What we know:
Blueprint: E1 9-11, H1 14-21, E2 26-28, E3 41-46, E4 52-58, E5 64-70, H2 78-90, E6 99-104, E7 113-118, E8 121-126, H3 129-133, H4 135-146, E9 150-155, H5 159-162, E10 168-174, E11 180-184, E12 187-191, H6 206-213, E13 220-224, H7 230-237, E14 242-247, H8 250-263, E15 268-272, H9 275-284, E16 289-294, H10 306-322, E17 324-334, H11 341-355, E18 359-366, E19 384-390
Parallel strand pairs: 1-3, 8-9, 13-14, 13-16, 14-15, 16-17
Antiparallel strand pairs: 2-5, 3-4, 4-5, 6-7, 7-8, 9-10, 11-12, 17-19, 18-19
Helix pairs in contact: 2-4, 6-7, 9-10, 10-11
Amino acid sequence: MTATGALPRVMIRPRGVGRLRAGHPWVYRSDLDAEPGTPAGLVALADERGRPLGTALYSPHSEIRVRWLAPPDRAVDASWWRAMVSAALARRADIADTGHRVVHAEADGLPSLIVDRYGEFAVAQLLSAGIEAVRDDVIGAVRSVMAPRGLLLRNDPPVREREHLERTTELAFGEVPERAPYSEGGLTLVAQPWTGQKTGAFLDQRENHVRLGTLGSGARCLDLFCYQGGFALHLANGGAREVIAVDSSADALEALRETARSRGIGGITTVEANAFDWMRGAADAGEKFDVIVVDPPAFAKDRRSLARALAAYKELNLRAMQCLTDRGWLFTASCSHHVDRGSFFGMLAEAARDAKQRMQLVEIRGAARCHPELVTVPETGYLKAALLRKLGGSPI
Ligand code: SAH
């Protein structure tokens, strides 16, 4: 008997089996032979000949019906969840920053589960009906492996609707404050687990924040789409002469100013504005910066909006390139799932051409390594980033 003996069985069609064997844990609705007729939760997968394929999460309403977890000989019980969370934590044992991701969903073998750490506190997201059905085991694993003072469930992202799940924010256990301090590089930053974006901060830019800090010394800097100042604070802390931080969210800018005040970091001017308008005005006025960060929200929400999104990225980057001093640095990013690496770098080339600037690609960057990408699951790698430097002179 296999470890999956007592679970409802789901037969997978050959195309779905092929996908699983190619290292992608998702099986779509159309690749199921028949619905098990059971509620969301654990199921035992089999191919059309009845050969076992392992244990998976089942979501009865989602296009992604099945998310594979473990091979047939391994029972998925409380000890399995503890072992998986423990292994994910161990892979990050050398990360000194106390703000980092601990479980990056599919990339850590735990589909639709996010767990982030902010100092003594943990914040999780359960993003499928299947994982919601085993929440007690998940919460138990986080509690026993990470032993945080509290675990908050930020189960409010829109994707939960596709799973017919409520969007809620609730405390699983312990206490989690409105503002949770955490270290990043040499700085103490502040996350807002209950109300902030994502789980309270942009941990995926962790290593990029720190890298930009090394370029700050004596520089005039611009941080476009600054949110709570992940880049601006590191630039200022790194000795920037001046940092202008632009965002449309007054709350985010207030949080930035509060962190700067409490850390004794000066030299940051916050500007509440639409970054497109602000950037156009700066370019028209001939403003110059030694370092510019362009880290916008995801413009491409789906495939249909891709062309418009690329035009928006290009517009921002083109203006930023025009506003760089000779040898100035441009850090630019896109977190749109639908913009692949090729389109991202193609967009940068077009921006440089139209800006009539020669730009060196100095570093290809991406999400911090606590957000790894599983190479067979492209969905786990959404953040493209580049550090460019102006060569100076102009093309013919
Ligand atoms: N750079 C930040 C994360 C940026 S997230 C960090 O590393 O922490 C994207 C930010 O863009 C959000 O703070 C959001 O408020 C802001 N934003 C979205 N649309 C905007 C617009 N048109 N103009 C200015 N800011 C905008």
